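For the sake of transparency, this paper describes our internal protein records without simplification. The tokens are whole numbers drawn from a learned vocabulary of local backbone shapes. One such record is reproduced below, unchanged from the form in which we store it.

. . .
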Amino acid sequence: MFAVSRANPSMLFGVRLSGLALLVFLAACSKPAEIEEPVRAVKLLTVGASGLSVQSEYAAEVRARIESRLGFRVAGKLILRQAEAGQRVQAGQVLAQIDPQDYQLAAQAAQAQLSAAQTQRDVSLAELRRYEGLRAQNFISSAELERREATFKATDASLTQAKAQAQAQTNQAAYARLQATTAGVVTGVEAEAGQVLAAGQPVVRLAHDGPRDAVFAVPEQVVASLKIGQSMTATLVSTGQLLKGRVREVGASADPVTRTFTVKLALDNSDKLPLGSTLNVQAAVLASAQPQAIKLPTTALRQEGTATAVWLLDEANMTIRSQTVQLGVVDGNQVAVTSGLQAGQKVVAAGVHVLSPGQKVTAYVDPYAPVSAATATKAAASADATSSSAGR
């Protein structure tokens, strides 16, 4: 017979509690399992040097070859402006007027001075004639006659001066009317009635009738390839009309905001083209200073601080690292890389913003990509071999 002793329930509870605490302690001390970073499939591109063809189509605007900013030659208060934007005017047509009252009064004063100078000159001339007769009879000395001659010369010079001043004041009064210098179209108005204007301050802009220019902007890397006299063609967007022209002017400095250079293309047979129309200018393919360059799609580029970078593949361990690059001209949807890459290297071509340095990757294979003839033949041979083995 064996003696069976019953354990104390409190003791059993303590043992169970101790075991549970031991399990918790062991679980806390054990090292957590590392979560492996998933290997991401990326689209890779092997870079190589290829030719550049700089984009050569630009949006342009039709403008008059000569456009003048017309203003009064004298200062005054603008009391009337007859010209309106878009109005066609003829040579000599009055465009605006300033208050002429002060200039008319000045002209009247100059006329009065002219009359006085004319009278003084006539009196001195009469005295000179009389004294010449007296000198012929030896009633006066030669010195007295010479004084009368000097007086006459002085009054004659005063008369000449008064005539000039009167003419100038008359012109000033005429300048109170602003007239069109030639036939054309008013393209802008820069002053309104009631405004006090300084001499020369623009009031209207006048586009002269005659030849037209196509005006467009080009980037800095292209402007050096444009030459005066270079032939180009342009297409009028509204009608599709094809126009020919030659480069007439190339901007000497860049626009401070857009950093582009203005180019003016003199169009042939363009007198009737409507101002402000849109043109597409097709330039000849421009020669580049770097005919062979590495090109990347814009999807491969990312911003890293102030620099531009790409993900470069390390084929030894299939990881990626960041590589900064210097960019050149834009060629369609691709950008030329001037430095930072060498031909034969592989870069990530898409999805660059979800990757991190040192991350493992694998090359993405497009299941819908067309299969080459060699690959198809190899796959067919493998399938035939498998079928033969199954038949035996």
Observations:
- Residues 1-5, 385-392 have pLDDT under 50 and may be disordered.
- The chain is about 30% helix and 35% strand.
